[in-house]
Specification:
This protein is of the alpha+beta class. It contains six helices and twelve strands. A hairpin with a 4-residue loop joins strand 7 and strand 8.
Length: 233
């Protein structure tokens, strides 16, 4: 589960052994009650805001420290080449051209669920450019051993909406989910989206991103991977 600290004194100080971030060897984040100057905060990137170098449209060639570490930019620490103060606003506000902030902005594309290649499918209602954020996979968080109790129900209904979230957690979108749970399987070159794991404000999220240009009305497809089929044999 997400780790947050809320103690007095500096994080990591041996005099404050109760700091959960220090104990779990993770970075402090915005939801922690420590200062943005905390030495345990991720330092963020210093990308130029003249070009969109941070985000998913430059996924393969980015020099952005945050993108390389599979984390979204943090508006409190990523300065994007800005001076300390600019026109009375905080310098560390994420500029509009930064596209490594899409999951925090909660700006998915418009999707529709209708008959697809296998039962129900997910279709885009708008144009999606290569590298664009499509939507986040959401669901009930289960511990891996809890997922074993779902097996009989899955075999009976034939539906499986579980997605490995971390080494010990699963996301089950069967009862709590959105349109992305209906994205069907396809191998390349038919696949047009891929799932990426991103650290978003210290929490791991699963986001779907376009790997090619997708026209309105097209069905979204991604490769489930070999592990999915082995588990469902």
């Amino acid at each position: 589960m997400p780790v947050r600290c809320a103690h007095k004194g500096p994080c990591g100080n041996q005099a404050v052994p109760e700091c959960p971030c220090f104990s779990n060897n993770v970075h402090c984040r915005r939801n922690c009650q420590c200062s943005s100057q905390c030495t345990r905060r991720h330092k963020g990137c210093r990308c130029s805001n003249g070009k969109s170098l941070c985000g998913e449209s430059n996924h393969k060639k980015t020099r952005c420290k945050c993108s390389k570490e599979a984390r979204e930019c943090d508006p409190e620490v990523c300065r994007h080449g800005r001076p300390a103060i600019k026109k009375g606003r905080a310098a560390n506000k994420i500029p509009p051209k930064c596209d490594n902030y899409v999951m925090q902005r909660a700006s998915p594309v418009a999707l529709a669920v209708q008959s697809g290649s296998y039962g129900l499918g997910t279709f885009t209602r708008q144009n999606i450019l290569k590298g664009n954020f499509v939507g986040a996979y959401v669901g009930e968080i289960l511990w891996s051993n809890s997922g074993d109790h779902q097996t009989l129900e899955q075999k009976f209904t034939g539906y499986n909406y579980m997605f490995a979230h971390t080494q010990s957690q699963l996301l089950d979108a069967k009862s709590v989910g959105n349109e992305t749970r209906y994205i069907n399987h396809a191998k390349p070159p038919k696949a047009n989206v891929e799932a990426r794991f991103k650290l978003v404000n210290g929490e791991q999220k699963i986001g779907f991103f376009a790997i090619k240009h997708i026209k309105p009305g097209k069905e979204l497809l991604f490769d489930y991977g070999d592990n999915y089929w082995r588990q469902n044999e």
